[in-house]
Write a structure and sequence with these properties.
The chain is mainly alpha-helical. It contains 5 helices and 3 strands, in the order H-E-E-E-H-H-H-H.
């Protein structure tokens, strides 16, 4: 698994984007399920990133997606509000995290970065 960044790298990355209010565990797993690139386990507050998916997606993208679930559940009380796990509130959180990551220079993916830079530029003008 030495070809992939370790869990500490991803946890530090996520916390530098947004310091969440509730602790979480993060694991980098060296297997590739057919349908999931990552998962957030609510009951354990655990993020799992399946490293071999790096062939299809940047692992940082997967980490940020799962982190958005953690924030959604722990800080936005998703369970109490009965919102879907990929509902509007989740996508707002995810979008805000991605925008912060790009603006801080922590995530570079041209399709996402171009959009964030244009939006950031439009806000300044």
């Amino acid at each position: 698994m030495s070809n992939y960044p370790n869990a500490d790298y991803f946890k530090d990355l996520l916390l530098s984007i947004y310091p969440c209010k509730e602790p979480f565990e993060l694991l980098v797993i060296d297997k590739k399920p057919k349908t999931k690139s990552g998962v957030y386990i609510i009951s354990k507050r655990r993020i799992r990133i399946y490293a071999p998916w790096i062939e299809a997606f940047p692992l940082e993208l997967i980490a940020i997606h799962e982190y958005a679930h953690h924030i959604h559940y722990t800080e936005q009380h998703k369970m109490e509000n009965r919102e879907r796990s990929h509902g509007a509130q989740f996508w707002e959180i995810y979008g805000a995290l991605m925008c912060r990551a790009v603006q801080k220079g922590l995530f570079r993916e041209e399709r996402v970065s171009d959009i964030a830079r244009k939006e950031h530029h439009n806000i300044k003008n």
